[in-house]
């Protein structure tokens, strides 16, 4: 229950006070302090915040403030209001997005280099990759062979590859020969008709993805590091390197 209430935006202290009030019913400040374990100096502020959310009502009786919980079904109305706020914010962001993009692009040079770390960094790169590549366009992959057996990383790349397949993006992949059995099973032609895989004898802890004018160099270790380069010249150079390796690779 507490996790669900936290999920809709209530703080831990607000949850303690709200649940205490549900147990007590119509109450005064002292009863709520004793029941919730929240300090008396904070209880009034928390009750007022819960009132703003429509979950608590406050009234005076004999010049003493009393508090009582509103029907919990009000939570659904609170969520409905939050949803409308999000939709309104989304519309506002969409309206200013062209201006923000214009300012962003005005300062972008012909070549950009980003350094990102961890799965979150990789997700930024590969989500963008799937977004900017169109059906029929090619992503070139030279796969690293060491340090990538972690389940989280394997699952991440399978998810990204499925997204590429779903969009009809072609993927040409080069892996080390020692990975042939595992890779051929994981990326079968039946499951991935847009993917072509070949094998080379080179071993490296580095994986390279090249697409359009982007090159992503992934270094696998205790922490995965991604170097993301936007440059048509660099991308073209890596594609030439890929084509050379592809020419001497094995199916």
Please describe the structure with a list of short key phrases separated by commas or semicolons:
22% strand, seven-stranded mixed sheet, Endonuclease, Chain A, Arc Repressor Mutant, subunit A, alpha+beta, 251 residues, 9 strands, two-stranded antiparallel ribbon
Written account of the structure:
It is built from 9 helices and 9 strands. The protein is an alpha+beta fold and 251 residues long. The strands form 2 sheets. It has a 7-stranded mixed beta sheet, with helices on both faces. Strands 1-2 form a two-stranded antiparallel sheet. Strand 5, helix 8 (180-186) and strand 6 (195-200) form a beta-alpha-beta unit. The longest helix has 33 residues, at 74-106.
Brief summary:
It is built from nine helices and nine strands. The chain is α+β, with helices and mostly antiparallel strands and 251 residues long. It folds into two domains: 2-69, Orthogonal Bundle (Arc Repressor Mutant, subunit A), CATH 1.10.10; 112-247, Endonuclease, Chain A (2-Layer Sandwich).
Q: Percentage of helical residues?
A: 40-55%
Write down the domain tally: 2
Assigned CATH architecture of the largest domain: 2-Layer Sandwich
| Name of the top-level CATH class of the largest domain | Alpha Beta
- How many helix segments? 9
The rounded Rg comes to: 28 Å
